[in-house]
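Exercise 7.
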Amino acid sequence: MQATGKKAILVGGGPIHLGLLRTALAAGYDLLLAVDGGGKPLADLGYQPQLLLGDFDSLPPSYQEALAKRGTQVLRYAQEKNWTDLELACGQLAAQQYQTVLVFGALGGRLDHTLANLSLMYRMAQGGTALVLIGDEQAATLLTGPESIRIFPFPGGHFSLLPYPSTAQGVSIRGAKYPLDKVTLELGSTRGIHNEFLSGPAEVELEAGSLLVIVEGLRHCPAGRTLFQRLPR
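Solution. The predicted structure, written as tokens, is:
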């Protein structure tokens, strides 16, 4: 999860890998943003977000009050609205031109929210913001060609590639059990599902289109690990 440019950490209310969250927080950030229930794990870990937003249907009032008293900016929205809290948060980040955003608590849980969050990742990429979504069991990011990424191994982990939202062209994999060399993956193809690490990092290259890179098995991933490193274009 190596960043370039302005970096934000966003914490939502879904399942969270606390070890990776602690690692990301310790590495530093330009903005720490909590979305509704995501304020609780941050406060419990002793961190204060600069911004807290949402309709607050999942964050206890005591946490809202405590964070506000310590200087956190609070943006409150109605529960009946046309956007999820995470989409509203992404709008804030896009307006401030953040290049990299680590989003904890946005994978797992409700399937509809997970799929919506993947589509938000695509939309943000079109505007120049790279999201990394991190749950308690999976992490995902999106490549937009031409782009390359390094995936760091850990015991019990594996990764998959899926074209999203359409065709991914010129997909190459090096340093993994199942290599590829400039293949085209069409939407609906399962060719990129479940690849395995060898002794070192795997590298994925995309020439055109966009490609989901999904790492599974985070329950085996110890704190202090890096998952992704985007390589220079």
